[in-house]
């Protein structure tokens, strides 16, 4: 479809109805994201208009998040890599990504018949390996999971939608690393009265949450006779969120030099998940096996 770019130049914007990449936003999805982006930057005398349509910039960011490619490996049909990365850093620094994410989360909750603000939360952590480009000062060794890298602390609502995220070195204990995301969730979402967590968060963190935050941290423990994996009540939603995130190849391993940029990558992944959820026409159906067809000479 044609999009009008800078100076009235008409450029080709690929929609989800034909061509393009699977990570590109459809027309309906772009209509949800576009109003939430900040206005174009202009100088005191009007300045130069933006050269590339916003939709192509956003599609390029989603391409990186979904495929895991390096910024320098962006296909040539996207805007230049420095331009795309400049927008990524600009929207990170001025809080645009967080505002877009939070607005879409409220829409998803309302579409599900719930209040836009959650009243309960779940917290858990995930340790992931890091690339060799990640500074040594921001990574560590998780002795429990035998992983050298970083640890992601997520707070979600009961639908599995992201409420707060904090990325630290993997050597940080769960009881220590969970304090900051719990505090952020308490300040930004005062309706949340209770959090659920696994037994790795038991101990002094429960007392700290009650004494400092005035909220309840309920520990969901495994059954004494449990063998192997079993779905835990309440906590299964946040485990599903981790599986959503690791389906994005950029998040299967941490490549970001700054932990704050890692948090932004997680928010971009959740934005893509939520716009697809808001625009889907029915329940998701997995495609069946594709039969192997032999070509006849």
Write up what this structure looks like:
The protein is of the alpha/beta class and 297 residues long. The chain has ten helices and eight strands. The chain has helices at residues 27-33, 54-67, 81-93, 96-111, 174-177, 179-188, 204-213, 236-246, 249-252, 259-279; strands spanning 2-4, 10-12, 120-129, 140-142, 147-156, 162-169, 194-197, 216-219. Strands 3, 4, 5, 6, 7 and 8 form a six-stranded mixed β-sheet that branches. A two-stranded antiparallel ribbon has the order 1-2.
Largest sheet: 6 strands, mixed
**Shape field:** globular
Query: How much helicity do the residues have?
Result: 25-40%
**Alpha-carbon distance between the termini?**
39 Å
Structural class: alpha/beta
- Share of residues in strands: 15-25%
Order of helices and strands: EEHHHHEEEEHHEHEHHH
- Report the mean per-residue pLDDT as an integer: 88
Radius of gyration: 21 Å
Number of helices: 10
How many beta strands in the DSSP annotation? Answer: 8
Low-confidence runs: 1-18
Which tags fit this structure?
297 residues, two-stranded antiparallel ribbon, globular, alpha/beta, 10 helices, disordered N terminus
Topology of this structure?
Blueprint: E1 2-4, E2 10-12, H1 27-33, H2 54-67, H3 81-93, H4 96-111, E3 120-129, E4 140-142, E5 147-156, E6 162-169, H5 174-177, H6 179-188, E7 194-197, H7 204-213, E8 216-219, H8 236-246, H9 249-252, H10 259-279
Parallel strand pairs: 3-7, 7-8
Antiparallel strand pairs: 1-2, 3-5, 4-5, 5-6
Helix pairs in contact: 1-10, 2-3, 2-10, 4-10, 6-7
């Amino acid at each position: 479809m044609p999009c009008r770019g800078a100076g009235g130049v008409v450029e080709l914007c690929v929609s989800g109805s034909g061509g393009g990449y699977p990570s590109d936003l459809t027309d309906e999805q772009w209509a949800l994201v576009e109003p939430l982006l900040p206005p174009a930057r202009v100088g005191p005398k009007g300045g130069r208009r933006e050269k590339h349509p916003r939709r192509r910039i956003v599609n390029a960011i989603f391409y990186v998040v979904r495929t895991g490619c390096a910024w320098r490996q962006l296909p040539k049909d996207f805007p230049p890599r420095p331009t795309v990365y400049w927008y990524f850093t600009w929207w990170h620094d001025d809080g645009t990504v967080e505002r877009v994410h939070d607005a879409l989360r409220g829409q998803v909750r309302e579409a599900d018949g719930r209040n836009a603000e959650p009243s309960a939360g779940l917290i858990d952590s995930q340790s992931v390996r890091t690339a060799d480009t990640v500074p040594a000062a921001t990574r560590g060794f998780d002795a429990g999971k035998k992983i050298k890298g970083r640890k992601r602390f997520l707070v979600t609502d009961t639908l599995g939608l992201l409420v707060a995220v904090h990325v630290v070195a993997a050597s940080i204990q769960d009881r220590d690393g969970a304090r900051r995301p719990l505090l952020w969730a308490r300040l930004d979402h005062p309706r949340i009265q209770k959090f659920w967590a696994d037994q790795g968060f038991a101990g002094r963190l429960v007392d700290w949450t009650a004494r400092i935050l005035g909220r309840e941290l309920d520990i969901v423990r495994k059954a004494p006779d449990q063998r192997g994996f079993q779905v835990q009540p309440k906590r299964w939603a946040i485990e599903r969120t981790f599986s959503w995130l690791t389906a994005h190849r950029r998040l299967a391993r941490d490549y970001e030099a700054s932990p704050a940029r890692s948090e932004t990558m997680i928010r971009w992944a959740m934005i893509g998940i939520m716009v697809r959820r808001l625009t889907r026409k029915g329940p998701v159906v997995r495609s069946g096996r594709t039969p192997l067809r032999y070509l006849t000479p």
